[in-house]
Amino acid sequence: MATQTPARPRPDREEGPRGAAPRVRRRLFGIGLWMPATVAVLLCGLAWTAVAEDQPYLLPPLREVGTVLVEDPGLFLGNAWSTLQIALLGVSFGAGTAFVLSLVMSEVPVVRRAIMPLAVVLNVTPVVALAPALVVAFGFGMAPKVIVTAIITFFPVLINMTTGLRSVPVPVLHVFSTLHASRLEVLLRLRVPSSLPYALAALRVVFPLSIVGAVVAEFVAAGSSSGLGTMIRTSAATARLEYVYAAIACLAAMGVLMLALITVLERRLLFWHESQQ
After folding, report:
1. Of 106, 119, 101, 94, nearest in space to 207 by CA
2. How far is it between the farthest Cα atoms of the chain?
3. Over the Cα atoms of the chain, what is R_g?
4. CB-based contact 85:263 (threshold 8 Å)
5. DSSP, res 9
6. pLDDT tens digits, residue range 239-256?
7. Distance (Å, whole) CA 217 – CA 147
């Protein structure tokens, strides 16, 4: 009588995906994710405290910086809102203008050859030198500060978008040509979606950079009465270092939040892209 070999248990195909979820959670919430950053922050805090105790005219104690933030949060929130307005308006104008120009430059090579040298010259020109002329031309209001911020955020978006619009795979272009797609269809259905990773990478740079541009504008543009940059300038003139570093902490927090928002947006829009896998 023939003996039957017992069948081997089939591997559970669901085990892989089910086992992958705990691994993902461990990567997201494991000790290896937050421990290095925590140790680095603690070491920086200890170094700061040591320098502040030995040379208080260089760095204020951290407790004084925290006390200033806690005792008068309205002062910092109001000035932060003024700086944030300049940053958002500046990045909107700068990035929007760069996006439109990159679309035109990708379709009309003559425009690209004419505009790109001017954009390079504008990028290498110190913005601090342009600020007084902008104040004379546009007055002492918000306009010169927004223009300074727009100039600072213009060039990275222009370069990234131009590169993204031109980096379309040739075989895919041949497919569109075979289907007799118009130039507008190629632009809207192929070039713009292909340039989306480049555009979001540029936004990750220019959104925090807009905070820097707004502060620089408040430093160099005359007539600034509010904003964290103005607070830093006036507090440094009167040697109130705790206010200076409290304002810097607010600027750093604003930059981190803006970068986090762009990162979340990038993960939502580019879930299909290999960089998010």
Report:
1. 94
2. 106
3. 26
4. no
5. P
6. 888 999 999 999 999 999
7. 9
Nearest to 229 by CA among 216, 240, 241, 242: 216
Helix (H) or strand (E) holding 232: helix 228-237
For the question of whether the overall pTM of this predicted structure is more than 0.70, the answer is yes
Structure tokens at 129: 């030198």
Q: How far apart are CA 54 and CA 274, in angstroms?
A: 50
Structure tokens at 26: 């461990």
Cα–chain-centroid distance for residue 264?
Answer: 12
Token pair recorded at residue 9? 């248990």
Q: Which among 104, 121, 100 has a CA at the least distance from the CA of 112?
A: 104
The encoded tokens of residue 48 equal: 């700061």
Q: Quick one: three-class SS letters along 42-83?
A: HHHHHHHHHHHHHCCCCCCCHHHHHHHHHHCHHHHHHHHHHH
Question: Following DSSP, what letter does each residue of 93-110 receive, concatenated?
Answer: HHHHHHHHHHHHHHH-HH
Q: How many CB atoms lie within 10 A of CB 139?
A: 12
By three-state DSSP, how is residue 171 classified? helix
Q: What is the pLDDT of residues 86-140, one digit of tens each?
A: 999 999 999 999 999 999 988 888 988 888 888 888 888 887 778 778 877 887 7
Return the number of other C-beta atoms located less than 10 Å from residue 59's C-beta: 19
